[in-house]
Amino acid sequence: RLFGNSGACSACGQSIPASELVMRAQGNVYHLKCFTCSTCRNRLVPGDRFHYINGSLFCEHDRPTALINGHLNSLQSNPLLPDQKVN
């Protein structure tokens, strides 16, 4: 999907031109190359299931690792959201 207005990527903080294709999750916007699993760094593409936990993206494979390794420090500010699918 086209971004539509200029702004910054939620992952890298770099600007995103209005004409660039982006990925979106929970109100955040990402460059296509930055929409990656926080653990394995594999890029998430349309059709992939992912989990958004405390502001981080995790692929289906790495979600249990994220839970075990303590990425869930405080669920009060960012609740655990059910698994989602990239559209």
UniProtKB/TrEMBL annotation:
Asked if the Swiss-Prot or TrEMBL record annotates the protein with the keyword Repeat, the reply is: yes
Q: Where is the signal peptide?
A: none
Q: One GO molecular-function annotation for this sequence?
A: metal ion binding
One Pfam family from the UniProt entry?
Answer: LIM
Q: Which positions fall inside the LIM zinc-binding domain?
A: 7-69
UniProt cross-references to InterPro entries, sorted A to Z: LMO_RBTN_TF, Znf_LIM
Keyword set for this entry? Answer: LIM domain, Metal-binding, Repeat, Zinc
SUPFAM superfamilies registered for this protein in UniProt: Glucocorticoid receptor-like (DNA-binding domain)
What this protein is called in its record is: LMO42 factor
> What organism does the record attribute this protein to?
Geococcyx californianus
Its taxonomic placement starts with: Eukaryota, Metazoa, Chordata, Craniata, Vertebrata
